[in-house]
Amino acid sequence: MPDLEIDLVDQFTCPPCVKKNPELRTTWKRRCLYGLRHENPSSPSACHKPCRGAFSKYCSDECGIKYMQLRISQWELDGGKRDALWEAVKHAEKREGVVVRVDEGDGRVPTAGEVHINGTRESLLGMPSKRRVEWEVGQLNARLEKVVKQREMIKLDMDMVLWREKLVTLAAQRAGKVDECGWDQRLCFGKEEWTDFGAEVLDSYEEKTEHGNDAMHVDDTSSTLGEWWCAGKKKCERHAG
């Protein structure tokens, strides 16, 4: 068996078993469509991985994109225009599922494009403009909610970056005033620790400044953060690079 075909084997049946039981056969997985449409499907440069079953004809999104690029390039060679193609598909949306309920009263099976809304039989093609607008508004609101969530996550990440930048500045200023390493291990705080202790970390520097430089290397006894600064020598072997 060629090495390129190993990934396509579903269930292998050895030749001696096939000889004893002729009905047995080695079963194979369906190959990625991008590999099958390659200019040389049997070459090592072609994709030889199995597709994702009922979910996709391709082994990965990458192969799906490459196959579409291949088709577009071939379409251009046949006289097609890329700009015209983009104008035709740039507003395309993902297909939405529609639930069709069978009316048991008359035993009639709904025809294609027919849907029951509030107990009445209506056509999707003939949907009133008002209901169509409401549907579109619902779709836009759902997208807006996703954008708002993404914005909040980005804002949270930016706040953490600004906090860490300020903490680096304060730690550097403190390290220049004390005769010790001064590395602040709170610089390694993750998002959860930053959410719980972020403001308190910056306050600890302000408290030490108010008490003077001599007390800056001693953590406040009222603080629950503990001692965070490295008290090693100025050229600390661990934190001096």
What features would you describe in this structure?
The chain has 241 residues and is mainly alpha-helical. Among the domains are: 3-85, no CATH class; 160-241, no CATH class. 42% of the residues lie in helices and 5% in strands. It is built from six helices and four strands, in the order E-H-E-H-H-H-E-E-H-H. The strands form two sheets. Strands 1-2 form a two-stranded antiparallel ribbon. A hairpin with a 2-residue loop joins strand 3 (114-117) and strand 4. Helix 5 crosses helix 6. It is extended and about 80 Å long.
Oligomeric state of this protein: single chain
Class by alpha and beta content = mainly alpha
Query: In which range does the helix fraction lie?
Result: 40-55%
Q: What would you report as the Rg, rounded to the nearest angstrom?
A: 33 Å
Count of runs of 4 or more consecutive helical residues: 6
How many strands appear in the DSSP assignment?
Answer: 4
Spatial order of the strands forming the largest sheet: 1-2
Low-confidence region ranges? 115-124, 213-226
Amount of beta strand? 5-15%
What is the straight-line distance between the termini?
53 Å
User: Strand count, sense and closure of the main sheet?
Assistant: 2 strands, antiparallel
Rounded mean pLDDT is 77
Shape: extended
Q: How do the helices and strands follow one another from N- to C-terminus? A: EHEHHHEEHH
